[in-house]
TrEMBL record:
PANTHER family cross-referenced by the UniProt entry: COATOMER SUBUNIT BETA (PTHR10635:SF0)
Protein known as: Coatomer subunit beta putative
Pfam families tied to this protein: Adaptin_N
SUPFAM superfamilies: ARM repeat
Domain of life per record: Eukaryota
GO BP annotations, alphabetical order: endoplasmic reticulum to Golgi vesicle-mediated transport; intra-Golgi vesicle-mediated transport; intracellular protein transport
Clathrin/coatomer adaptor adaptin-like N-terminal domain mapped to chain residues: 2-266
Provenance organism: Entamoeba histolytica
Record's GO cellular component terms: COPI vesicle coat
Length: 352
């Protein structure tokens, strides 16, 4: 460490010994001491801007950060990496992104790492960054995941070839993440992918249960759709044709024909043969809860739930969207679509 401090003090005033300093640092960078490696990797890029040296220094600092259990060492390490990245941005963009992405798994510094990676974003490394960031979507830290979604959008802007649509549509089902996803989807609806985007929104509307997100999806579908009959039929299926929970339970009760005794405890008693501890056979009685199974059988979609709860904003958004579609269609096919639209509006009127 004394030698390293001495080199740091005199390397600027003694450039004639640069080759000697490089030789010494080249030997010390493979030291077993984390602190020695930290100092060597910090000094090495100051003495020479050789791409191999810069890359090796970054990799060494990343190794130190990942292997150390001391939070202070991790913070110092990421600060040193930032200094090197600001000094040699071209080298970092070209060959160090994969090393930097390794640090995303460290909770205490992953936000700093994400910012650092995004400052080195380029079309050639956007795919690699997206691949790593997709793995971070499942993290419990909602704030960090929102930043990841923002980063994914930037990657898409830099390189249109990267695929992030599935991640964004999945984010619609989480209220805290939906804002970023909606902004991205609105942008996609302005381009050539309009029809595909609307089709995916139709597929996902049944999985959304948040009021604000649902209103946005309804508006986007009704505003940008071109296959009007498909959209109207989808809303009709979810609102008019979907039976309510009580009706479904009654139908299942009739089909299963429960006995009077079973109805008292709402379960079925079954006998099962088992092997006992002494090797002999015995019987065990199990109770099967039918009501639980009926709840599993019927899962009400968020749109229908909102309507039955008389959510005025969702009902208004849907009514306006249906009316807008009905005003766009003409001819015989238009009459059929308007008839379905009137059915939907009458069903909505029932809940108002």
């Amino acid at each position: 460490m004394v030698v390293l401090k001495f080199i740091r003090l005199i390397y600027k005033s003694t450039p004639q010994f640069k080759s000697k300093y490089i030789e010494i640092l080249g030997c010390l960078i493979s030291s077993n001491s984390l602190m020695v490696k930290l100092e060597v990797a910090s000094i090495f890029p100051l003495i020479t801007g050789n791409a191999h040296v810069v890359t090796q220094s970054i990799q060494t600092l990343v190794d130190v950060v990942c292997s150390s259990s001391d939070v202070n060492v991790k913070i110092i390490g990421i600060q040193r990496i930032k200094m090197i990245c600001s000094r040699y941005p071209k080298v970092i963009k070209g060959s160090c992104i994969s090393s930097l992405l390794r640090m995303l798994s460290i909770p205490s510094i992953r936000k700093d790492v994400l910012q650092l990676v995004m400052t080195s974003l380029a079309p050639r490394n956007a795919g690699e960054i997206v691949t790593a960031l997709r793995k971070e979507i499942g993290k419990d830290d909602t704030g960090f995941v929102v930043e990841v979604l923002v980063a994914l959008r930037k990657c898409k802007e830099v390189n249109e070839g990267v695929e992030i649509d599935d991640v964004m549509f999945e984010a619609l089902t989480t209220p805290e993440l939906a804002k970023e996803a909606i902004e991205y989807i609105e942008y996609r609806l302005q381009g050539e992918q309009r029809e595909n985007t609307v089709a995916r929104l139709i597929d996902f509307i049944e999985e959304v249960s948040d009021n604000k997100t649902l209103r946005s999806i309804i508006w986007m579908i009704c505003e940008y759709c071109s296959h009007y009959d498909e959209v109207i039929s989808m809303f009709k299926r979810l609102i008019v044709e979907l039976p309510n929970k009580e009706e479904t339970f009654i139908e299942k009760d009739i089909e299963e024909k429960e006995t009077e005794e079973e109805k008292k405890d709402n379960g079925i008693i079954e006998s099962k043969t088992v092997v006992l501890a002494d090797g002999t056979y015995g019987s065990v009685i199990e109770t099967f809860d039918k009501q639980t199974e009926k709840n599993k059988f019927f899962q009400k979609v968020g749109l229908r739930t909102m309507i039955e709860q008389m959510d005025s904003l969702v009902i208004s958004s849907l009514a306006i969207g249906i009316a807008k579609i009905c005003s766009k269609v003409t001819g015989k096919e238009g009459n059929c679509i308007r008839a379905k639209g009137i059915q939907i509006l009458l069903e909505l009127y029932y809940y108002v």
